[in-house]
């Protein structure tokens, strides 16, 4: 059962100094499962996620041979249809949560806005639902956080508020762009178990974008490894740590370890054939 | 030429001057891609040129009366747009009138936004009672319709072009203060402001160097969009006899004197009206286009629209 | 003698009549040229401690001493030349309308230091950014490059102490390695003292000599690097942090937990 099918997705930015290809022909399909996307900074992970929601601002262009979500062709959908999908059926947790929250609106207002406008839920009910969502993401003092402005939150709290906001409308597909990068390991585990529950119980599809390879290998079902806008490797998550591709290996080797030596960490060696511009196995 | 262009578009400039000129060049490229903004820019540039070269362009002296040639219709040889009730050439008066319009716009544009920015950013940055006092003051000014307030001010100060400008500027700043304060509130708690504070910067430096640039684009856009309104208020004051005094060829004044013949000799009031319309349109289009140009991120970043 | 001494520090935010006790009675000392880590639950007040040292958070109790002297409030220029901070979020800590050049030369302008051209080039080289990036805007840089600019800015005034708030949590593995190596190299070359927040125990272990574990605004336990690596923690919370970081341990890669 495929929820999302993407064939040959390309994202190009026409800048004054010539076109920049951020995503060059990415293909994948997603069922009701947890798909991880990893890769170094600038490899096009975020742009892939945004392209699915058609959230690329000009001068960026999206092209794809096929991009179908639950029977609906996303390339042909009107702006109105896209707006109806975004947030409601496809949610996206943005990479820079504090930047994506409105700095002059309280967290509570932002959480309940959608509920009150779109779902026409009463004030008290919307409030209760928002508080419950915050509690679910391990926020200790939800009433205070509801009244707080984004700058009064810690980095990890902002991230969790963003996740709560995306989960309230109960989407069918969630694109989570580095959703847990600012969370400590214990809270992270809780948040991941919520996402996990949604995939298992409600059959949500999850695209989990992250640079934390160990986390992805533990949490996801399947992993795409991206480099320079291409998918260089697709592996079952459990096998990621034993991945053969030199790029994936290189990324794994850069990680420090508890009890490891203090010597400088190895960098990523880009001299291999895979690193050349037309490299990539797809 | 092409080496100059290469120098300007060099993605890795080597000096501060080259970087700055390169930015300007990119802004120009962006505005050139936007045809409506270009149309606005052309209109505004034409206004400036006409004002500068008025004595060369105008076929007649705008003040000389010729009662024998009163109220001639447009198309009359020698008077392309016709003449008014004193036999003055309307085209020449419109051409000279552009100088007055430009003078008023220029003065208002350098006073009102500066005042508004100052008050808005100070109120937003310091907050507390400073904010309360300054914003109540702004509210008082906003509570009156602009034209009425300008009228009251001119009535006190006495008619004349400088007083009209002063009155318009004093009534135009509150919206800029509001915008600047709103922008300031969104940036004052950000980490980059905390970072300069940590480097030991004082309030003046933070406001002028770090907060004002964040407010500037919305204020500039608002200014260009407001210019149409400023022209109309200046015209309105002229129309009521409180701004520029006859026989100066001010557009509003011309409409006012043509109103008496609106039905028989429509062109006397219509021609300056058209001039006001075109110039207002020009500023509006330009304002819309600047919105896209002034944000250095707008053409390159991929961050989502909120 | 310790360079930074924090004694019984409390920070209370007041917003709309509510009181938020972000930090309650935390004490710590950091020796000269030492690297000290802070870990703990999200929202436990780690960033707030760093901000309190910089005078960016309302201290409601306790004292902060640097070099044996209580730091004045407001902090003043001498303080900025001595202590600098790298903020948690590289996307929010650079002015979006200023070029890298402007961001880096601003501290020099504030302190009236000349020769900014050469110093900017020098510091860019120090943090390993090509000098051709000098006139770019932050949005033209990746997260890791931005973080390096933020580190470069903190180095402009040649401080003695660097406060690092999750300097690598937004970065991918290869860039994290670059930044950590850079920080270690700079510490060795310039004799810096680090006070560093992270939630990745492996990063803390790689960088720090001692670490303080925090929860709910309070200090839970202080561990040496050896105790951390040997899992000799006494409190339940510190242990739970360590256990949840099992995949970051040295040794054979653990079986994926499902
Ligand atoms: N507006 C733009 N103009 C030109 N290039 C752009 C633009 N926006 C993004 N890019 C480029 O697109 C590429 C992919 O960026 P993307 O944000 O998807 O990376 P990422 O994999 O999410 O990295 P990170 O881990 O740092 O978030 C980058 O190389 C970036 O330089
Ligand atoms: N300006 C503020 N006004 C009110 N409360 C604040 C403010 N800044 C921080 N807080 C509160 O103080 C507490 C501690 O925040 P802090 O940023 O220090 O957490 P942290 O340990 O850095 O967490 P994280 O790992 O998520 O970044 C949080 O509950 C936060 O909501
Ligand atoms: Mg990204
Ligand atoms: Mg923090």
From TrEMBL, chain A:
InterPro entries: AAA+_ATPase, ABC_Ni/Peptide_Import, ABC_transporter-like_ATP-bd, P-loop_NTPase
Keyword annotations of the record: ATP-binding, Cell membrane, Membrane, Nucleotide-binding, Transport
Domain ABC transporter: 4-253
Subcellular location: Cell inner membrane
Gene Ontology MF annotations: ATP binding; ATP hydrolysis activity
GO cellular component, one term: plasma membrane
Similarity comment text for this entry: Belongs to the ABC transporter superfamily.
Full protein name: Peptide ABC transporter ATP-binding protein
Organism annotation: Fuscovulum blasticum DSM 2131
TrEMBL record, chain B:
GO biological process per UniProt: peptide transport; protein transport; transmembrane transport
Residue span(s) of domain ABC transmembrane type-1: 98-287
Localisation: Cell membrane
Transmembrane intervals: 36-58, 100-126, 147-172, 224-245, 265-287
Ion transport as UniProt keyword: no
Membrane topology: Multi-pass membrane protein
Any single GO CC term annotated in Swiss-Prot or TrEMBL for this entry: plasma membrane
Family indicated by similarity: Belongs to the binding-protein-dependent transport system permease family.
Protein name: D,D-dipeptide ABC transporter permease
Source lineage: Bacteria, Pseudomonadati, Pseudomonadota, Alphaproteobacteria, Rhodobacterales
UniProtKB/TrEMBL annotation, chain C:
Species per Swiss-Prot/TrEMBL record: Fuscovulum blasticum DSM 2131
Top EC class, one word: translocase
SMART domains per UniProt: AAA (SM00382)
Predominant localisation class: membrane
PROSITE patterns the record matches: ABC_TRANSPORTER_1 (PS00211), ABC_TRANSPORTER_2 (PS50893)
Family: Belongs to the ABC transporter superfamily. Glutathione importer (TC 3.A.1.5.11) family.
Subcellular location: Cell inner membrane; Membrane
Single biological process term from Gene Ontology: transmembrane transport
Protein's membrane topology: Peripheral membrane protein
Protein name: Glutathione import ATP-binding protein GsiA
Alphabetical list of InterPro entries matching this protein: AAA+_ATPase, ABC_transp_ATP-bind, ABC_transporter-like_ATP-bd, ABC_transporter-like_CS, P-loop_NTPase
SUBUNIT field: The complex is composed of two ATP-binding proteins (GsiA), two transmembrane proteins (GsiC and GsiD) and a solute-binding protein (GsiB).
Coiled-coil segments: none
Function noted in UniProt: Part of the ABC transporter complex GsiABCD involved in glutathione import. Responsible for energy coupling to the transport system.
